[in-house]
Amino acid sequence: MISSAVSVSPEAPVFGDASPSKPPASDEIVLRPARLSDIPIMGNICTDGYAPNPVTAYLTPKAHMYREDNIQQHRQGCRRRFLNIRNLSIIACLASDPSTIVGFGQFSRLGDDHGAKQFTRDRGLRERFWIYTLSWFFYFYHIVENIIWPDRITHKARMKEFESWAADDDEIYWKSHPERGIRWHANSIVVSPQFQGKGIGKKIMLEGLKRAQNERVIMGLTASVEGEYLYRKVGFELLGTFSHRVPGDDKEGGGVMIWYPEGTNSKT
Prior knowledge:
The chain is an alpha+beta fold and 268 residues long. The chain contains 8 helices and 7 strands. It is globular and about 50 Å long.
């Protein structure tokens, strides 16, 4: 259920809840801040969740042959976002068994306003020091890891093309509108396939929206065809459809979406 078109970087698609008719998540699902030790499980969830869609088939045509390569890519992407000082990573797990992770969300605080600076300050000097140190450690660790276990699944030319499409949509919907630069951005909302349709994606999203509402700033994201339904239910509006779609994708829907906090005049 990854977006079937493009607007964000290929390693950070937004994932939607595809079965809205099923009952919502109950108190058996709890949310907590992500930990570095959660990254391997997050990578597995991404691999399982993003597999059956046109974009991953187009960009990584050999992913079904080399599962470990696929996991490695997702794991590195989750870790890079986690170690960004402006990132908020949220884990959804079973209340009865907190070690069972069923989904997660990763959000970025963009802009240079008071809210963005306060979010960074609130993490504390010690936490910021460790994030900075670990980000450099894993920067070199990923380089070495990719040398030892090179990528066998990505179609390099298609990926380069995909990244140019993403840049086009970023320019159209965000950079050409400076007022939208101050925002929260949902990079990934991912739910394990066996737990989809229970409102877990919505629960994670609402937790992120609390931040945006408290700071009175917008939130942006890229929605798949399936995910668009979920995001409209929590108040997102479609800014526009994707400027490009991968060959073979004949679905309509999805695109770049925006959420406006209550009590603001952001639309004008």
